[in-house]
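During the reporting period the student researcher (J.K.) took over the structure-prediction task from the postdoctoral fellow and processed the backlog of single-chain submissions. One of the processed entries is reproduced below for the supervisory committee.
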Amino acid sequence: MKLVHLATAPNQTVAELWVDCLRDAGIPAMVRPGDTASFLGVSAAPCRVLVDEASVEEARTVLGEVGE
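J.K. obtained the following structure tokens:
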């Protein structure tokens, strides 16, 4: 499985929500924090959401439905 960048969330909380939606749809996904890490546990900095390369199109559809 090769993970690729799908989207950049404005913060870690939003990224975790997106990842939960993707996983609920059966798409392997994970959060990759930006250049800065929070020592308090949750980063307010943008975070990248990564998905399996084979699932990119399906993941875009899922996130598009979440945003509607």
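The committee noted the following: Strands lie at 3-9, 29-33, 47-52.
J.K. will present the remaining backlog at the next meeting.
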